[in-house]
UniProtKB/TrEMBL annotation:
Name of one Pfam family that matches: Methyltransf_11
Protein name per its UniProtKB record: Class I SAM-dependent methyltransferase
Organism (species): Nonomuraea guangzhouensis
UniProt feature coiled coil, ranges: none
GO MF, one example: 2-polyprenyl-6-hydroxyphenol methylase activity
Signal peptide: none
EC number: 2.1.1.222, 2.1.1.64
Keywords attached to this entry: Methyltransferase, Transferase
Length: 200
C-alpha cells in the first residue's frame, strides 16, 4: 500500500482490513475482482506473492497500471476471462457483486478458488424499509463522522444504485452457494462474506 493509499477513506476502504485479515497463511496467488485502480490489490500484494486484479473499467485499470508494483492488472470480465479453475488461494471482491447477477458471480468465485482457499467479499445490498431504517440511520451518522475526520475519496469506477439484491437475499445466496460461509451485516451499509473452500 502506498502513502497515497493510506490517506484515502470511503465506505469500501473502511472494510479492506476485514478482507486482509482473511488471507490464509501460505497463500501464493490472489485475485481481486473489480479491483478498480488497485488499492486493495496493492495491499494484498504485501501478503501474497502473486496478485491479479481484474476490472471492466478501462480508466481504473489505466490508473492501476501507473503504480510501480508487480500486480498483474487485467482489463476484462472475470465471469468470462479464461482463468484456470481452482487457481487462486485468495479471492477478494469489494463492492462488485451488485454489478452482476449475484448468484452467477458467487458460483464463479467458488469455482476459481482452490480447495482450502479463502473467498472474502464486502458488498452492497438493498435495504428493506422500515426494518432497516434504524440501522441505516446509524450507519449514516457514523459515516458522516468518519468523513469529517478523514475526508472521502471518490473512486474512479462506475457505480450501480440501487443494488438489485436485498441483504436477506444476499445472505440466502451465500448460504446456498457457499455452504458454511460467514455472513455479517456491517454498520457502514455493507455486508461481508468469508468462506473457506473445503478440501477435496
Amino acid at each position: 500500500m502506498t502513502v497515497k493509499d493510506g490517506k484515502r477513506w470511503n465506505h469500501n476502504i473502511h472494510y479492506h482490513p476485514h478482507i486482509l485479515r482473511a488471507v490464509p497463511d501460505g497463500a501464493q496467488c490472489a485475485l481481486d475482482i473489480g479491483c478498480g485502480e488497485g488499492m486493495l490489490a496493492r495491499a494484498l500484494r504485501q501478503a501474497v506473492p502473486h496478485v491479479t486484479g481484474i476490472d471492466l473499467d478501462a480508466t481504473s485499470i489505466g490508473q492501476a497500471r501507473e503504480y510501480p508494483d508487480d500486480v498483474d492488472y487485467l482489463l476484462g470480465d472475470f465471469l468470462t476471462h479464461p482463468f484456470e479453475p481452482a487457481s487462486f488461494d485468495v479471492i477478494a471482491s469489494v463492492a462488485t457483486l451488485h454489478h452482476m447477477d449475484a448468484a452467477t458471480g458467487l458460483a464463479r468465485m467458488r469455482d476459481l478458488l482452490r480447495p482450502g482457499g479463502v473467498l472474502a467479499i464486502v458488498g452492497l445490498a438493498r435495504s428493506t424499509m422500515p426494518n432497516d431504517l434504524p440501522r441505516d440511520l446509524a450507519g449514516v451518522v457514523v459515516g458522516t463522522l468518519h468523513r469529517a475526520a478523514k475526508g472521502r475519496w471518490q473512486h474512479p469506477s462506475p457505480t450501480v444504485w440501487p443494488p438489485p439484491v436485498t441483504y436477506p437475499q444476499m445472505r440466502a445466496l451465500a448460504t446456498e452457494i457457499l455452504p458454511g460461509s460467514e455472513y455479517r451485516r456491517h454498520l457502514l451499509l455493507r455486508y461481508s462474506i468469508i468462506w473457506r473452500k473445503p478440501q477435496d
